[in-house]
Design a protein that fits this description.
The chain is an alpha+beta fold. It contains 6 helices and 11 strands. The protein folds into 2 domains: 4-140, MutM-like, N-terminal (N-terminal domain of MutM-like DNA repair proteins), CATH 3.20.190; 158-289, Orthogonal Bundle (Helicase, Ruva Protein, domain 3). Mean pLDDT is 90; it is low at 93-97 and 240-251.
Length: 295
């Protein structure tokens, strides 16, 4: 499943072509993906101008003039392909090349962009992705309503993080994966952020929300670690372990900078630490950390 940085790189790859473009034609080659496509899907988008291409957590949002907002999720294998002038590119960076099998091209947008005609193709072999309409503000749609704060920018600081985690007895990692608290954080980046902050994934989440100088320092350190690991991954183009690649066809390389994720048994990279990276399972998911320096 792509994480927030992968979705953001897809958005940034599509944005220069799609924003300001007029939708000339929409072709839905099947009636459903994970869910049925909205009623009159093609009719309601045809002729509209795309005013903005956004992202909320792991969802892409396509805003059009005088029409519904399109909410899109890539699922496990979904991707967009840009075609123009006989060439194509797939925005987003992933470790293995995304599917180009035309049998899995399920939705096609023919657009007239500021650079000329383009075709935007949504390909999804496993069909776990989806496209839905929001008739009101996207944040009011059931898929987006209730999502927590974004882990980008300065909104997520130590004080807010402490308030979100106050009195929570769940393990810290589990709390950080709760999308109602922080939207878009996934398994990879939580492991990396906890290592950067020197905090154990096993400790109770509420322990960094106590009214002590140590707890305040821990919450500030963790907030900074979350923001920085997400920013670094976006700058590198994402780091999903399979399938996604950048607009220019290059593969993402942030995964080669992992400190702990998927590095079981290697020496901990913290300077002066004599520990090693361990793998444990929490709520059915792998967690990687160093018990020697993450307290």
């Amino acid at each position: 499943m792509p994480e927030l940085p992968e979705v953001e790189t897809v958005r940034r790859g599509l944005q220069p072509v799609m924003e300001g473009a007029r939708i000339v034609e929409v072709e839905a080659r099947r009636p459903d993906l994970r869910f049925p496509l909205p009623e009159k899907f093609a009719e309601r988008l045809k002729g509209r101008t795309i005013t903005a291409l956004g992202r909320r957590a792991k969802y892409l949002t396509m805003h059009v003039d005088d029409g519904p907002t399109l909410i899109c999720h890539l699922g496990m294998t979904g991707s967009f392909r840009i075609e123009a002038g006989g060439g194509s590119a797939a925005p987003g960076i992933f470790h293995h090349e995304r599917s180009k099998n035309a049998a899995h091209d399920h939705v096609v947008f023919d657009i007239m962009s500021l650079q000329g005609p383009h075709r935007i193709v949504f390909n999804d072999p496993r069909r776990f992705g989806f496209m839905l309409f929001s008739e009101t503000a996207p944040d009011e749609h059931p898929m987006l309503a209730g999502l927590g704060v974004e882990p980008t920018g300065n909104a997520l600081d130590g004080g807010l993080l402490a308030a979100l985690l106050k009195d929570r007895k769940a393990p810290l990692k589990a709390a950080l994966l709760d999308q109602r608290l922080i939207a878009g954080l996934g398994n990879i980046y939580v492991s990396e952020a906890l290592w950067r902050a020197g905090l154990s994934p096993l400790r109770a989440a509420g322990t960094i929300a106590a009214r002590t100088k140590k707890a305040r320092a821990q919450s500030e350190r963790l907030a900074e670690a979350i923001r920085s690991v997400i920013a670094d991954a976006i700058a590198a183009g994402g780091s999903s372990l399979r399938d996604y690649m950048h607009t220019d066809g290059s593969l993402g390389y942030f995964q080669h900078s992992f400190a702990v994720y998927d590095r079981e048994g290697v020496a901990c990279p913290t300077p002066g630490c004599a520990g090693h990276v361990e793998r444990i399972v929490q709520s059915g998911r792998s967690t990687f950390y160093c018990r020697a320096c993450q307290e």
